[in-house]
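Please, structure for the following, as tokens.
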Amino acid sequence: MSNCIPIRTTADTCEVAWFAALCGDDYEFLGVPDGELRSSYAHCSEIVRRADANGFQNILLPSGWIAGQDALAFAALLGPQTRQINQLVALRMGEVWPPMLARAIATLDHALEGRLCLNIISSDLPGTKESNDVRYSRSSEIIRILQGLWSTTGPFSWEGEFYQFALPSTEPAQCYQQQGGPLLYFGGISPAAQDLCARHCDVFLMWPETEERIQETMQTVAEQAAAYGRTLDFGFRSHVIVRETEAEARAAADRLISKLDPGRGEEIKRRSLDASSAGVQRQDALRTAAGSLWIEPHLWSGVGLARSGCGSAIVGDPDQVLAKLERYMELGIRAFILSGYPHLDECDLFARHVLPRLRTCRLNELQCRRLPHPVTPLTTAPRT
């Protein structure tokens, strides 16, 4: 590794995940609806089965209040249909009463025999608008409740700002993964988001930026985690366009946005609950600062013209894409969550040209002996 950023997984390996478009994010031409690519159970389940067959180690199941599939229910249905892939289920903190959420997670974790990871989401709940302080405080409290239920036996009581309860037993919440429960992945660029991950989570996810900015963010978050006596792994969420030649890859990128109406693109972006987040604004600012859709060599930001969240793609021939990913590994990245349009086609292309050449692992297997999370209940008075 070319820097001194402390990371949890020091082996020169990475976990490579694909993306299941549960929230309707699949196109042949960006921004142009396609009935065959809509978020249906049939289409999204085929993405998961294809990623499983192609050898990806994980797959992200996103969450959002738009027409599509519920991530937790979807994961339960797909578990018996997959052979080896983990499922990274996105969960919006606050949508489910925490003890019942813990039981649902435990049930799924047993059904998957430990092939479960969780992507913690702290954006607004559907139909609400709250301050960052409220959202992250509630998320922090829920994570601590979940980790407490997973890490203790016997009675469990909680007196916090948002939740108060007393349970006679934690047995319904005991996971298949006994060393602290499923790994927690988290992404967010605001100071509150970084602090939450540094305190509680296992993998800090970042969206595409310049390598210099990525290193700065990793250093900041690593230092915050160290202040809490912890180390993290770092992940990178990106789209990818790989073809046999660079010219073909660039042509595919141009084709993807060739039918995009700018107004329709903005409409698609605004429908997401995180459209005004600090991370999304930073993605837009990077594209503006670059003065073109190319942020740096082989990193193209055209996807962000019609997508909230991750807005850039690694573009190039197999050697170029591999070199870019290996460069990120040199920086300390240990998890990649990739996607492409259409998702089935790009899944096959990446699996054919690049995936077999990467040194892969599963983070939850490498970290299965991690210490249970300490339980530190809040002592503040209940909200009135």
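Confidence is low (pLDDT under 50) at residues 369-384. The chain has twelve helices and 13 strands.
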